Amino acid sequence: MRSLRLVAIRLWQMRRVLVLVIPYFLLFGWLFSGDPAGDLRPAELYGIRETPQWQAPDRDHWCGKAANGADLFELSRFAMATSVSVAVVAVSTGIGLALLVTMLFVFDPGENRFAWIERTTRTGVILPGMIVMVILTGGGGGGLLLLILGLALLVALMLCPLLCRWFREGEEGFEILAARVLGLSRREIVLGRVLPSVLRRLPGVFAALVPVAMLAEMSLSFLGFTGERLSVGVMVERGQAYLIEAPWMAIYPGIFATGVVMAFSLLGWRVSAALRTGPLPPVF
User: Fold this and answer.
1) At what angle do helices 232-239 and 195-222 cross, to 10 degrees?
2) In angstroms, rounded to a whole number, what is the distance separating the alpha carbons of residues 174 and 158?
């Protein structure tokens, strides 16, 4: 009974976060609940055909049909789900990498233990992140793996100094001073008291950075740096060739992506505020 009471109290304390997390995951589920498009390539949707099967939006097809007759709403949802998957994997990997790099220095008792990380990240923000991504993906020939790796490295580069600051602030509280007086080792203090407070903020970081990574992925796919796969950026770019005959093929995927990114941004901002993550460094 005592354990159940503690769980109930903990859930009540996290009620604001849970109220926001539930629609966040519902949005994830809705995006991935559509019919999978399989290995469908953009050339099959936007290739020039003698008898295109596109169709203007109507009651049955809200966003119209593509050149091959496929429902554009379902294609947009599938493409958006791909963008979300890339963003989730890249941000998760970047957060894990930043935490790993920071933990390599956190047990050093010196005052300047984070100086190397801060100097490295300070020189890494000279170029905007999107310019770095364009150079990286374009020079490497594009591709999904290169895109995820580049996004993860940029996220880690920007998060490392923030994590260093959180660890430094966590060691200055009254509870930490009391723990030192009681004779707890530095390892026990960091792992038992400082690290949990840092980890509680990371879900807010994740929620806030996912829509940013989604925008980066769509921008790079629009520029043609992500390979031959179905993406909202590719759909908008290829659809520009049909603005006269079938304008919905470029307009409606863009509107769909705008609504999804805005929903993720609002939910992520509220989750970050509820967890008191604080202002995040600019990534892109």
Assistant:
1) 20
2) 29
Average pLDDT of the residues in 193-207: 84
| pLDDT band per the 50, 70, 90 thresholds, residue 117 | confident
Residue 174's CATH number: 1.10.3720.10
- pLDDT tens for each residue of 21-32: 778 778 878 887
Centre a 10 Å sphere on the Cβ of residue 186 and count the other Cβ atoms it contains.
15
Torsion of CA 107, 112, 116, 122, to 10 degrees: 120
pLDDT tens-place string over residues 128-143: 666 667 766 766 666 7
Q: Three-state DSSP class for 103? A: helix
Q: Distance of CA 182 to CAs 11, 187, 196, Å?
A: 31, 14, 20
For residue 91, the enclosing domain spans 2-274
